[in-house]
Amino acid sequence: MHVFVTGGTGTIGSAVVAELLGNGHTVLALARSDSSEQTLKDAGAEVLRGGISDLDVLRAGAAQADGVISLAFGRDYSSPDVLAAAIAEESAAMATLGAALVGSDRPIVTVSGTPWVPGRASTEADPVPTDGPVGERGRSANTLLSLASRGVRATAVRMPRTVHNEGKGGFAGLLTEQARRTGVAGYPGDGTQRWPAVHALDAAVLFRLALESAPAGTAWHAVADEGDAVRDIATVVGRRLNLPVRPVPEENFGPFGPIFAMDQPASSAYTREALGWQPSHPGLLEDLENLRP
């Protein structure tokens, strides 16, 4: 396939671009800067200049492609308003890309988050939340999946709270950044809450599998580690950075505080069975050993 990819230089996106190119696909990737364009060209992708707010550019990219993988999302989470703006931008982009594929039977794979279910690990059958600070992302994913009835092979890969590579990325990465800023490897609550995780290279394989063969209207879990205790994550971070480890108020983590404090394990048993996905890269705690002071 000739695949249009947005967000192709991020932690997940760069791995997805490499995975597609390494498995016989060609890639047209969105680039909003000269540095992003060069990175993508060096990887072997064609480039379309623009950002995810350039809806006409997104339509042009989708028109040229046999399939789409939508990964772009803002990187500034400094306040609830900034986060809400990033989610709104992503929602408009997803709606535009989905509409461009109506009636074509072409695939589009979007990124979503694993849901949380009190008392157990969430599964692919559980609905994503549509309320709370990131509820709009769930609503947008559901809207895209509903295009299955309009001739779009729309699927969603639900990502855990931490997508990591070389000890960086996701919620664990944010916790690490906070530790570097404050001098404390802190965690909210008692630290027994669990975060699921996946290595970016394993996640990239699942995006390719979903693009190639997942049925329309389906959702899949890119979860390798069902749930690592946040205290265990902070302990590794503290040891690697030579910092003390202790609980801190969830407010210290800004808009992510309430989410950081939740117990949110997730399973990928159905995804592994149905799509043959088998994670093979290091788990989160092992990967965090790559951190340097």
From TrEMBL:
One Pfam family per UniProt: Epimerase
Source taxonomy: Bacteria, Bacillati, Actinomycetota, Actinomycetes, Pseudonocardiales
Name of protein: SDR family oxidoreductase
Domain NAD-dependent epimerase/dehydratase: from-to ranges: 3-215
Coiled-coil boundaries: none
InterPro entries: Epimerase_deHydtase, NAD(P)-bd_dom_sf, NAD(P)-dependent_oxidoreduct
Disordered: annotated segments: 113-139
Gene3D superfamilies noted in UniProt: NAD(P)-binding Rossmann-like Domain (3.40.50.720)
